[in-house]
Each structure stands twice: as structure tokens, then as C-alpha cells.
Amino acid sequence: MLRHRPPTPAQRACVDALAPAFDRVAARARAADREGLLSPETWSDLVASGYLRLFHPASLGGAGADGLTLALAMERLASACASAFWTASISTILCGKLLAELCGPRHRARWLPPILAGARIGCFAATERGAGCDPGSYEARARRTVDGWRLSGVKTKISNATTADVAVVLARRDDPERPGLCYAVVDLHKPGVSRRELAKIGLRAMSWGTLEFDDVALDEGDVIVDASVDRTLEVVEWGQLMQAVSALGLAEAALDRARAHALERRAFGRPLAHMQIVHARLADMQVELDAARLLTREAARRRAEGQSVREEVMMAKVYATEMAVRTADRALRILGGAGFCTDSDVERLYRDSLANVPAGLPTDRLRELLGCAALSIDPWSYPPFDWLTPAGLRID
Amino acid sequence: MKEPRDSSLAAIQTRARAIATTIVARDRDGVTDPAPLRELAALGLLAAPAPGEAAALCEAMIELGAGSGDAGLALAWAAHTLGCALPIARLADPRLRARLLPRLEAGALVGAWAHRDAVGSVTRARRGVGGYVLEGRKAWVVNGPIADVLLVTAITDDDRDELSAFVVERGAPGLCCGPRLAVAGARTCGIAELRLEGVHASEDSMIGAPGDGRALVLPLVHRWQRGCQLAPWLGLLQAAVADVTRRARAPGERARPRAASQSTPARVADMRLQLALCERMLARGAWQLDHHEADAERDLVAARLFVGDAIEALAREAQRLCAPGSCAPGDPLERLARDAPFADLLGHDRDTLRSILAGALLGLG
Known about the structure:
The complex is a heterodimer of chains A (396) and B (365).
Chain A (H helix, E strand, L loop, with lengths): L8 H8 L2 H9 L1 H7 L4 H10 L17 H14 L1 H20 L2 H13 L5 E4 L15 E4 L3 E12 L6 E9 L5 E8 L5 E5 L10 E12 L3 E4 L2 H36 L1 E2 L2 E2 L4 H29 L5 H26 L1 H4 L4 H10 L8 H13 L21
Chain B lengths: L4 H16 L2 H7 L5 H5 L14 H15 L2 H21 L2 H13 L4 E4 L9 E5 L2 E12 L6 E9 L4 E8 L5 E3 L13 E12 L9 H17 L2 H19 L13 H29 L4 H26 L10 H8 L10 H13 L3
Parallel strand pairs in B: 1-4
Antiparallel strand pairs in B: 2-3, 3-7, 4-5, 6-7
Helix pairs in contact in B: 1-4, 4-8, 5-6, 5-7, 7-9, 7-10, 8-9, 8-10, 9-10, 10-11, 10-12
């Protein structure tokens, strides 16, 4: 069924109301990137805009916006400042949704209100040094004690690692009766938690680093729910949507800068805007952005309505995140040397766009999951390593 | 488009399957057979689409493309319905419309769109007794060998670059259709060069007024071509990807299915992803045709560009993934790979479309 649902005037108006605050965030984006820090003013603007509340129902203190409004708002903020977008979205969407939907009333009551108010920041800690998209190799462990649990292990490449107050941690439960993965809610100010920043190419104003748990004592209720692969994928759907929308915002910003440069910059007695090869680049940027936007917005709308959209979300994440890198690269080509300067917005947008590709399951792994589903192949079991047979070399 | 589309999807599938039974022979023999095109009349697909019918029309044509596997028919349909019946329905003199449109819609007459001038030729219409006299050559006229009614564009005033559109009927003195062109793809439709050697066109045969060719006819035809023309091609791609998926699962060389190679699922995923994106771009284009909101022209060009690129890329990838079997004559993927370059035959080429789109982005006017 060919159906197109553009945003309604009400949805646009809702997002337009955020624009003044986001414009102020955008004005500080370059400085934030240079200094590797979001300013308190930027965080205040984000909080005042109401962005943090959009993603949760009114019953939990949120604004209960619909899926398309959420996508529009996310895109607008990502376009303004990707670091601010990631910091806020990891906290309120990824960690916030986990707390709201999976971690029970006690943790929800304790952590969600301050996260939505911007007084606390949350994160989701899954990946480890030797374990990314393969959940079978996670090693962080929650060990049962007489009165609760002890958490040990190292989580790395975690967004908001050094700024967060609370983490939902994916850990292996050391319990012979109930083995498997679980979620643990950890107050990151507890003794035994140490953290450090990792250097990175982009998203420099967002904290990203390592969380080390050294026998951290947790209450009985802090290790709260089974983390099946299916459930984890459900959770990371929001993360993947977040990355797809982040890519849309970055691509939109790159296209804006390229368009402005094409109109301003003159060569051979004419603006670049009069050159057909520049037309081709701009057109390709717009067309691919449009396609990514249509798929991502539809996935966001349907996801927020509670529909099953795993395939669409994975597709959106694959296409949008890679599209944003291509778009930023095309913008760099239009800007020429100006785009290579470190005080250029496009240079920052290019670096920032790279983060979306590996985050929340790398796009190549998502391709494998999507393709295996289409071909009825189990994407979780791999045959023993053999580089000759698949290529036919053993027989040839 | 006289019938509601949803209720006729089953009928389209049945008709498409019947058309598919002769596709290999028609493609191999390269004979222009108007029968499949005429059969579309019973489905209401030869009728000029009315405002509000674009989405339903696209859905119907996707179904037809998927079931028939006939890219030539997709071109023939676009030339007949969008290039000829549509401007006659919307813009022609009422008497001309009343005389031709019912028979075009019933499939009794075959229409064609003759806009592209042959290399080195400019088609002109000069004032003559009781109308105009047309001189020139039109290239790559889809349905040319079988057309009864041709919509021909011609310059009526060189100084003002005034382009007008005329309806020219088969048998008009001076109208010569060259032999069917030998082409590598789209071999199930007839493509020919058209020569206009002093063809008389009455005042009534002009669509609108002098200059309306550029002002009204081209924008109308281009809009619908950009929004709907590639819908059957999306169906062709859907069928190809389904075919690739089936073949990838089947035992291949040394009893090992292609799907066992790790690259195959990834490539299949990319193909399915492209299909999903094409669907959404077409859906937005059709929505714009039905509602004509802000940025409609830009969105339509974007749809045409995106789907056009996808046709070329997916046809090639489908053939590569299933090679060498997919290189055999008569194989549907081999046929699609040959047909794909012809998707651009009607309307602007993609480089021009990119400039049109960029012009809108840059406010070049």
C-alpha cells in the first residue's frame, strides 16, 4: 500500500516551538566541539525547550508527543548540535525508555523524573572491549550475595560515560538457577565505580568512555529483568532510530552549508551554483536525504504507535547513517579546501556523522540480520572458520 | 481509472500473469504486439488519471510490473496514458477530446508521445491554410510503429522559443514512421523515429493555444511521468528481488546455496532496502500529484531520480548475484538488465533532472 503521511501543521508547530532554544544550541555548537564540552547554557536551553520530556507519556511526567513529532524534534536538534542531541537523547530516550519500560516502578520513580527535568543524566552500558554486537561474549557479571548483588566488569565505548548519574548495565547473571543476561540499574556515584573518557573523532562535546565496576554492591531490586536477545533488540530499536534521525539532522546541516557555499563562492566568473557538477552533488544529497527521511520518519511513527517495525528501523539506521557520511563528504567536496579547515562546520559535521554508523549495532551487522531474515538463515550461529570453502577454493 | 483500484488488484494480477506467459517470446522476437497494451483497457489503466488517483494508479502499475515482467509494456503504457491520453483529457479541444479519448481509453486507439527531436533536427510548425504545417523528425518514439494518435510538440515561433503541442493521427499525409528500431532492451514495445514532412495540423488539433506546449502540456506530462511512470518498474524490481531471494536459497554450485556466502545476505539486504526506499519516494510523489502541496515539483523530480538510479543499480546487482545463470537469454534477470537503461527513455535524462532539482534548492528559477 503506497501511503505517504506528511507532518501535520500541528506537528510542525510543536517542533517550531523548540526552534528558538535549538538555534541558541546551534550557535554554540562549534565552540562546544572545540572545547569538548557542552556549556551549562546549552544544557539549560535543552531543558527549557522541553525536549527531554517529549518521549514519555504524561503519566510519567512527559509530554507524550507522537512518533512523527518526536522524529521532527530529534532531527531539528541533531541538525543544531549532534553532541547535544546525543547527550540528551541517550539520557532521555535510551536510558529513559529502559527505566520506564523495563526496570520497574522503584527505579522509574527514582530516576525518570530527574532525567526528564535534566537534573540527572542517564546512559546505557552494553558494549565491552571484546564484545559489541555479539551478546554471547559479554563478560560483565552480576554475582548474587546474601543481601543483593555485586557487579564487576568493564563497559566501554559508552555515551555519557563520565557525565551520567545512572546507568542501565547489561550484565551476565552469575546465578546457576537463572543464568543469562540481565539489566542492572547502577547509581554511578557508588563506591567501586570508576570511569574515564576515550578520545574520539567526532561528537567531541559528548562524553564517551569507559565504566569500570569493581565489585559494586547492588540491592536485590537493582538487577531486575531478564535481558533476552529479543528484548535487547527491542530496546536498541530506539537507539537505532536515534542514530538514524541524528544522521538526518547532520545531513540536513551539511546540505545547508553546501548550498550556502555554492551560492556565495565564485569561480571562473560565476557562482558554484551555476555549475552542473555542483548541481549533481546537491541533487544527490537532497534525494538521498529525502529517501532516508521518509523511511526513518515512518519507522518512528509506527514504533511510537507500538507497531512491530524492527526491519524498518534497521533499514533506516543502515541507510540514513551511511547517507549522512556520503552527504557530509559531498559537502566537503563542494566546499573544497574551506571544508577541510577545522573551523568549518562541514568538517565537524563530517566527523560527527561517522559516529552513527557503528553505534547501536554496526550497519554491516544490521545488513547481515536483515539479509538473513529474508533468506531464512540463522544470523546468530556461525560455522567453524574456513576461508577456503566459502570461496570454492578448497575444491578448485 | 474508472474503477476503484483496490477492488481490481486481483484482476490486474490475473491479467499480468497472462501477459507474462508470452514475454520471453515477445522479447526474443522483438515484434511489436499491441495486444498486451490494449488489454490494460479492461483494467481501466489506459484512462487518463484524474486528480486524486495517482496513488491508486501507482499501486496498480506496481502490481502490473511485478506480475508481467514486461518493461516494454511499462514504457508503452506511459507513452499512451501519460504522454497522450492525459494531455488530451485535460487540455485538448472538447470536440477532439470527445472524438479520441473514449477510444484511447478503451484501447481501440494506441497513443504515443513524440517530444524528443532527432539529433540535428528541430520540429517546427509554421502557419498554413486552416492550421499549421509540421516539419521535423522525432526520435525514440515509444509506440511509434503502432500509434494511432501521436502527441507531437513543435516550435511555433523561433524568436520566442514558443513550443506548442499538436495531435497528429495515423495516416496523416506526410507522417512517416520509420522502421522499428533494433534495441537491446524494452523489446516488447515498438520504438521508432517519426518523420513529419509537411504534415497538416488543423487549429483544433493544437492542444490549448500557441505556446501552451511549454506552458501547460510539458509541465502536465512531466509531472505525471515523474510521479507515476516508474511505478511498474518498481514492480519489476520487486519481482527481481524475490527471484534473487529464491535463487539464493536454492542449492547452487557444488550443492551449496549462494546464501551460505556471508556477502549474499548483505547484498540481498541492500536490495530490499532500496525497494523500501523506492516505495516511499513513489508514495510521496503520488501524494504530491494528488495534493500538490509545497515543494511538489521538487519531490516529483526527487522520486524520478531516486527510482531511476535504483532501477539501474538493482537490475545490475540482481543479475550479478545470480550469475552466470542470469546471463542466459530468456532469463528474467538478463532481460531486466537489458531493459533497465530504457527506464529513462521518456522525459528528461537524470543529469538534467539533477540540475532541475538543484535549481529548486538554489533558487535559480
